[in-house]
Amino acid sequence: MKVEQKPFGTLDGQRIQAYTIRNDHHLEITCLNYGCVITKILTPDRTGNFENIVLGFADIESYETESPYFGAVIGRVAGRIKDGQFELDGKSYTVTKNENGNHLHGGRKGFHRVVWDAAVIDKGGDETGVRFAYTSPNGEEGYPGTVMLTVSYTLNNNNEFLIHYQAQSYQTTLLNMTNHSYFNLSGNLQRDVLQHRLKIDSDKFLELNEQLLPTGKLLDVSGTVFDLRSGRQIQEGVCSDHPQIELAGRGYDHPFLLNKNHDREIVLWEEESGRTLTIETDAVGVVLYTGNQLSETMDVHGVKSKKYLGLCLETQGLPDAIHHSNFPSFVLEKDETFSSRTKYTFGIA
């Protein structure tokens, strides 16, 4: 087990470092102190061939100017906040409106566009990683309260990758963090994700409106392409005539309410490579996004980007919960400690 550190470039005079976490089975995860971005994850296929299974760029400039949140930690609030406004403790707040008059993924300079402090975690033996820290000042992107944050990435010899989010605020605020990695288990982007199969243990998904904001309705997955409880090929959903699929740009971009936690509740696999990804979390939900809006102008590790080149499984609270009393709250009270864990296990079918 070891962590290697290398320069990745400079941004506004700040040095960007790449950290590669490697276990004894040669599985590798590379991440940056910029946005806690995960740039590469190298895992073996069924023949033992190690290839990258996430979308990313080779230079920091592309992350700054082109990235659709590739591999980044999102916050303060993942997803959309309607009209960029909310009330908290009797006061009204306006946060950055960076998408169609709404607030998206923490604003123009959310957690994904800041340089975090980084330190190697040396647990000895079978686990190692990197801990990132950032202080989000009061008023950043319009949010109240100064928030102290840490994000830990650790890898062990069971091929388990753990993300641990922690935060504490000096004032009541909102917090709903996630990681926005785009996965493609074919390896080195040899194929798109339409042939991937996905299982999500969820009976309910959120209905969205034309702005991809939750209407407040939790819809039953039964009898629809949103029923992923037994596994379903992504292409089945993309090619369906379900109005919610059409609304989201011919694909999924929907939050699911999880039935259980830390019990193989999300499983992704790709038959040709044999690779599997199992996700277990304490978050109440997961947003499935199948890359419906990916631009065709980007160079992604030497491959031209296109729709469905990768998919996101964003474990988090339900989006826009501040406007829906029937959703679990993501209000972070003053001096309360926030803690959330998501585990990714890489395997072979």
Automatic annotation (TrEMBL):
Transmembrane segments: none annotated. Belongs to the aldose epimerase family. It catalyses: alpha-D-glucose = beta-D-glucose. This is Aldose 1-epimerase. Its EC number is 5.1.3.3. The lineage of its organism: Bacteria, Bacillati, Bacillota, Bacilli, Bacillales. It comes from the Bacteria. InterPro entries: Ald1_epimerase_CS (IPR018052), Aldose_1-epimerase (IPR015443), Aldose_1/G6P_1-epimerase (IPR008183), Gal_mutarotase_sf_dom (IPR011013), Galactose_mutarotase-like (IPR047215), GH-type_carb-bd (IPR014718). It holds the Pfam family Aldose_epim. It is an enzyme of class 5 (isomerase). It comes from Fodinisporobacter ferrooxydans. Pathway: Carbohydrate metabolism; hexose metabolism.
